[in-house]
């Protein structure tokens, strides 16, 4: 009888063992050999496309009066690839290509007698490449970026170095970014200020005769992010910047109290100091609160405060709607004066309302969907986000922007 | 008066930041499921890059929040 019990027990265990062979009860263990593929693999691909339209009546090209109508169709495509070297360090390559097509009614007023000046509509192309090497155990990383930008009258070559350091418990992160842009732009004057101009006639001569001028920008960004508790994290950033060269836009007109007209003239140096903070709070499973504040100052006398609030609402774990509001208030530069109000004795002058006293509101909402089986059942399309924003500025400028972001993996 | 207001704003920001950082607790990796949510990222969304770009051009107080990579005068 005892033998029978033992046979039944062994038979039962045998069945369990045979089942265990077919479907493992325990998931396969992670590879502990530390081996990583050295072949480049695609991590993700992003496509961002936006349509922007603005209208206003304070164009700087015509001295602070006239249309500011502008449209911009902007697109960027980026692809992130990575591999591991023999020491197990991760190499990440991020290539981005941006192409914008814009048309500007005010640009046509540089030479109002021509049918259409060259910059009435233009394209901007800007590729960039970043390489980052990271240690996935410590989280520390460093990398370099090279960038280029080209449009009709403006070329830019840029380089950057980035460094990330994490604390041992990975709750504190320090980031540093050093960046330089070496830009060159063609000097284009308003038609009536070009040497040899005859009143009432178009004078679209070769602008290369006016030469080109450099504009160099150097900036650093230091940021510390901190996990405060399981629902709250913060980021604090300081970004000093220095610009040198032709910082005025020479085809923008300025009208003086004595009736004279000159091309915009601004100092050749500019120091900027923006300080900002972010605080994100996971309120509950449905609501998240994202906040942002920035203070800005520079040596042209501009001071600004910007505050932003966004509240993503998770309708499901994979679908969210994010209404947002941004407020900005700015004390303008000391060199600004409206149309016809510049002092003839002033050394520097501008009627660009972007540099004037202003306050603005920007509000809208984003819709984001990222189901685990892919958007619309398409496995490769991991995330789709659509955003709309409406902008109102106290100088009577309004604009609308629609953005589409698609992430593929 | 404006200088006093700006000093006050910076001081308030410094106090908020220092008190926030001082109140930190050690959070273990397994407690970070909420912090790792994509909506909790401590940076602007990818879809915001063009919004930031036009704001940089339309407001003289540019910088500190990204925008397009590369140069570009954006002077229209």
From TrEMBL, chain A:
Signal sequence coordinates: 1-20
Keyword Signal annotated: yes
Keywords: Signal
The species this protein was found in: Mucilaginibacter terrenus
Signal as UniProt keyword: yes
Xref: InterPro entries: DUF3570
Name by which UniProt lists this protein: DUF3570 domain-containing protein
From TrEMBL, chain B:
InterPro entries in the cross-refs: DUF4266
Domain DUF4266: 27-76
Residues annotated as signal peptide: 1-22
Keywords from the UniProt entry: Signal
Tagged with keyword Signal: yes
Protein name, as recorded: DUF4266 domain-containing protein
Organism lineage string: Bacteria, Pseudomonadati, Bacteroidota, Sphingobacteriia, Sphingobacteriales
């Amino acid at each position: 009888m005892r033998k029978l019990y033992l046979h039944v027990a062994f038979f039962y265990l045998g069945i369990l063992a045979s089942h265990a062979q077919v479907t493992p009860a325990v998931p396969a263990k992670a590879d502990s050999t530390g081996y990583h593929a050295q072949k480049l693999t695609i991590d993700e691909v992003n496509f961002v496309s936006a349509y922007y339209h603005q209208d206003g009546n304070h164009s700087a090209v015509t001295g602070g009066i006239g249309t500011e109508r502008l449209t911009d169709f902007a697109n960027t495509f980026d692809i992130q690839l990575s591999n591991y070297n023999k020491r197990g360090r991760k190499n990440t390559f991020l290539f981005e290509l941006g192409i914008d097509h814009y048309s500007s009614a005010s640009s046509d007023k540089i030479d109002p007698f021509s049918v259409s000046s060259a910059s009435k509509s233009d394209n901007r192309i800007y590729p960039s490449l970043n390489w980052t090497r990271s240690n996935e155990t410590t989280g520390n990383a460093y990398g370099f970026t090279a960038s280029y930008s080209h449009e009709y009258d403006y070329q830019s070559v840029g380089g950057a170095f980035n460094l990330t350091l994490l604390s041992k418990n990975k709750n504190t992160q320090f980031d540093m970014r050093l960046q330089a842009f070496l830009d060159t732009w063609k000097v284009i004057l308003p038609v009536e200020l070009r040497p040899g101009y005859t009143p009432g006639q178009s004078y679209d001569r070769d602008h290369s005769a006016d030469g080109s001028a450099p504009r160099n920008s150097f900036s650093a960004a230091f940021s510390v992010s901190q996990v405060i508790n399981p629902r709250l994290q913060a980021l604090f950033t300081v970004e000093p910047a220095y610009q040198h060269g032709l910082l005025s836009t020479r085809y923008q007109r300025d009208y003086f109290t004595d009736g004279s007209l000159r091309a915009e003239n601004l100092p050749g140096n500019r120091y900027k100091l923006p300080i900002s903070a972010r605080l994100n709070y996971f309120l509950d499973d449905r609501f998240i609160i994202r906040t942002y504040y920035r203070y800005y100052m520079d040596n042209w006398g501009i001071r600004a405060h910007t505050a932003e609030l966004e509240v993503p609402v998770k309708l499901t774990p994979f679908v969210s709607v994010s209404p947002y509001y941004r407020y900005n208030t700015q004390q303008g530069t000391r060199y600004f004066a409206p149309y016809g109000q510049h002092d003839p004795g002033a050394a520097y002058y501008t009627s660009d309302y972007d540099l004037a006293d202003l306050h603005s509101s920007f509000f809208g909402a984003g819709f984001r969907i990222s189901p685990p089986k892919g958007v619309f059942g398409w496995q490769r399309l991991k995330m789709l986000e659509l955003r709309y924003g409406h902008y109102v500025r106290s100088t009577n400028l309004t604009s609308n922007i629609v953005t589409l972001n698609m992430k593929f993996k | 008066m404006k200088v006093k207001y700006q000093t006050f704003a910076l001081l308030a920001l410094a106090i908020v930041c220092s008190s926030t950082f001082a109140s930190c607790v050690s959070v273990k990796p397994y407690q970070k499921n909420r912090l790792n949510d994509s909506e909790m990222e401590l940076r602007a969304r990818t879809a915001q890059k063009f919004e930031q770009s036009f704001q940089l051009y339309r407001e003289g107080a540019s910088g500190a929040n990204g925008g397009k990579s590369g140069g570009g005068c954006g002077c229209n």
